[in-house]
Structures are given as structure tokens and as C-alpha cells.
Write a structure and sequence with these properties.
Elements (H helix, E strand, L loop, with lengths): L13 H7 L8 H19 L8 E3 L2 E3 L18 E3 L21 E3 L21 E3 L7 E2 L12 E3 L8 E2 L12 E3 L11 H4 L6 E3 L5 E2 L5 H10 L4 E2 L6 E3 L25 H43 L1
Parallel strand pairs: 2-3, 3-4, 4-5, 5-7, 6-8, 7-9, 9-10, 10-12, 11-13
Antiparallel strand pairs: 1-2
């Protein structure tokens, strides 16, 4: 099958147009205005694809929100800067969907049914600054998910209840990222490596997750405490769901003292003492069982002798 070719509308040259007009005199100013408006309209329509059905397009903003769409619109104007697909039923985005839209700055995909995004979706979205993926069904954020989208300033991944894992290299290279929202998901753990490569981070939202505040969380909490003056976090909403001894405690209330047990190390003397105690306990257990056996045997003989005397 041959490759598809775009048909271009050829406008006549200005001189040729006026030469072919049968008017006896110079053109009227009103006719000139109409001609230029029509020419501008033809040139604009030739510059990019027409507005998709069920969407509105104006000033490089394409709004397809709240249209009950089950899939993304196939063709968009090439100069689209702001694309809203929010409040639909979109379950998947095809690979390479954003390849042709080099001017895209804002992408709103909130409140859909997305479970994952194709690899390399943002490969050509070098100017993308704001991305909203909240209120979806994402289960994980893979490594290099936002690769090449180095211009991202705001990422919203909140309210993805099945979001269980964020890869340590998920946000790699996003040096301009200022706002990151991971609140109200299913995260129990977050690697420090996922955040420490974000030098421009100003706002971090992590509340509403079932955090397990064990020893593995200490590096992240220590990093957050050191950045708390520069990084705004929803400290009141972030709570521990485990272990039981810290359940319900605010995440940021945990101090180094809370993780003191994580740094306990046993010396050779400690191991020898534990071995000695174990040995003593085992000997005591054997002795106790021996005494109980003798006692039971004596009681049995005494009971039998008593019965014989009665007879």
C-alpha cells in the first residue's frame, strides 16, 4: 500500500488573481478584506489537521474533556499546545501518539481508566511541562517513563488506588520538576533514589498512602527531613499503616530514635551470651522434664500401692 500524502491547497498568486478579475476599476477595500480573511483561513487549515469530532479547538487548545470517549482522538492540529482528554473512559493510549505534536505543553488525562502507558510515549514531547494522570488505574511507574520529557515541571499521579510501585529511575532526568503529587495511592514504600535526582523539587504530596514505616523507609524520611524547609510536603496527611507499634503515627513525626533498632549490631560477646543462655535453657528444660517424669512415676506407684492395701 502506498504511503498517504497530504493534499495541499494551492493559492493563486496575488498578481494573477487581480489580472483575471473582470472588474473595470480597482478593487473595493471590503473585497480586499474578505479575500485576505479567506486566504488566512485556507493557510491555517493547511497548517494542521482539522479539529477532531466532539472536541473544541481554539488558540492551540484542544478540549476533548467529558465526551465519554473510549479512545483518544486519532488526529489533532499539529500545533496543539494544550490537550485535555479529562473525564472520559479512555483505557489506553497508542504508542507514538504524541510523536507529531512537538508544541505540546499541557496534557490532561485525569479521570480516565488508564492502567498503564506505552513505553516511549513522551519520547518526542520535549516541551511538555504539565502532565495530569490523576484519578486513573495505574499500577506502577516504570523506569524512564518520562524519558526525554526533560521540560516537565508538574506531574500529578494522585488518586491512583492501585499504584503500588514507583521505579527508582522513574523520574530520572527531570531536573526542572517542581511539583510531584503521589498522594492517595497504594504506595507502601518509595525509594530514595526516585526523588534525590530532582534538584528543583518544591512541592511533594505523599499523603493518603499505606506507608510501612520499617527500616527501609529511614533513608527517605531522613532525606525529607533535610529538605522540609525547601520542599513543601503534606506532612499532616502522611501516616504509617505499619508496623503495629507506629500504626497511625504521622510519617514525619518519626525521628532517628524511631529507627534505633535498625542499627543494632551484635558483637562476639553477644553471640556467646545468647549461645550460653540457649544452652542453659535447654539443660533446664531437660532437667524439668526428667523431674516431671520421676514425679509422675512416683505418683503412679503410690496410687497403685494404695489400691492394693485397700483390697
Amino acid at each position: 500500500m502506498g504511503s498517504l500524502q497530504h493534499c495541499c491547497c494551492q493559492l493563486p498568486k496575488m498578481g494573477d488573481t487581480w489580472a483575471q478579475l473582470p472588474w473595470p476599476g480597482p478593487p473595493h477595500p471590503a473585497l480586499l478584506l474578505v479575500f485576505f480573511l479567506l486566504a488566512a483561513g485556507v493557510m491555517h487549515s493547511d497548517a494542521g489537521t482539522s479539529c477532531p469530532v466532539l472536541c473544541t479547538c481554539r488558540n492551540q487548545v484542544v478540549d476533548c474533556s467529558s465526551q465519554r470517549l473510549f479512545s483518544v482522538p486519532p488526529d489533532l492540529p499539529m500545533d496543539t499546545r494544550n490537550l485535555s482528554l479529562a473525564h472520559n473512559r479512555i483505557a489506553a493510549v497508542p504508542p507514538g501518539y504524541l510523536t507529531c505534536y512537538m508544541e505540546l505543553r499541557v496534557l490532561d488525562l485525569r479521570n480516565n481508566s488508564l492502567m498503564e502507558l506505552p513505553q516511549g510515549l513522551f519520547l518526542h514531547a520535549k516541551r511538555l511541562a504539565h502532565l495530569d494522570l490523576s484519578y486513573n488505574n495505574l499500577s506502577h511507574v516504570p523506569a524512564d517513563m518520562f524519558r526525554e520529557a526533560h521540560g516537565l515541571v508538574h506531574i500529578d499521579l494522585s488518586h491512583n488506588p492501585w499504584l503500588r510501585r514507583v521505579h527508582p529511575q522513574a523520574f530520572q532526568g527531570l531536573v526542572h520538576l517542581r511539583d510531584l503529587d503521589l498522594s492517595y495511592g497504594g504506595l507502601a514504600f518509595l525509594s530514595l533514589e526516585a526523588l534525590e535526582g530532582l534538584p528543583g523539587l518544591v512541592t511533594l504530596q505523599i499523603g493518603g498512602n499505606p506507608w510501612v514505616c520499617g527500616c527501609t523507609m529511614e533513608p527517605l524520611l531522613k532525606w525529607l527531613r533535610n529538605r522540609i524547609q525547601r520542599c513543601t510536603a503534606d506532612s499532616q496527611l502522611a501516616e504509617c499503616r505499619g508496623p503495629p507499634e507506629v500504626e497511625g503515627a504521622p510519617l514525619f513525626s518519626l525521628t532517628e530514635e524511631s529507627f534505633k533498632a535498625c542499627h543494632l549490631t551484635l558483637t562476639l560477646d553477644d553471640y556467646l551470651f545468647i549461645a550460653f543462655v540457649g544452652f542453659v535453657v535447654s539443660i533446664a528444660s531437660v532437667a524439668t522434664n526428667f523431674l516431671l517424669g520421676i514425679t509422675a512415676n512416683c505418683c503412679h506407684r503410690w496410687s497403685k500401692a494404695s489400691e492394693e492395701e485397700e483390697i
